[in-house]
Write a structure and sequence with these properties.
- By secondary structure, the protein is mostly helical.
- The chain has 3 helices and no strands.
- Helix 1 packs parallel to helix 3.
- The chain is elongated and about 55 Å long.
């Protein structure tokens, strides 16, 4: 069994939780806005607040992962976090464009 440094373990867990949070954001957004059975009369404020909080948490995790991977010069995680940041921002812009 390979023993990894604490920094690499931190990067692994940050990447794992950022993927889980991103999937959670996509799932909640699809259930609320795309697959809902009825048209919402008023905006679901609780869901919007939850998505706003999750996007903030995702941004913090991705930024922390990017900074740590750059500091220890780990190219694999630098690529992962930069691509994840681009995908997260593209998703945010896409939903903003579609739903106004």
């Amino acid at each position: 069994m390979l023993i990894r440094s604490a920094k690499v373990q931190f990067l692994f867990w940050v990447s794992f939780f950022s993927i889980i949070i991103y999937l959670f954001i996509i799932t909640i957004g699809m259930q609320t806005f795309v697959y809902s059975d009825e048209k919402p009369i008023d905006i679901p404020e609780n869901t919007i607040l939850l998505l706003f909080f999750m996007y903030g948490l995702l941004g913090v995790l991705l930024l922390a992962g990017t900074i740590i991977s750059t500091m220890i010069n780990n190219r694999h995680y630098m690529r992962f976090f930069s691509i994840a940041m681009m995908v997260g921002l593209a998703t945010l812009l896409l939903t903003k464009g579609v739903f106004g």
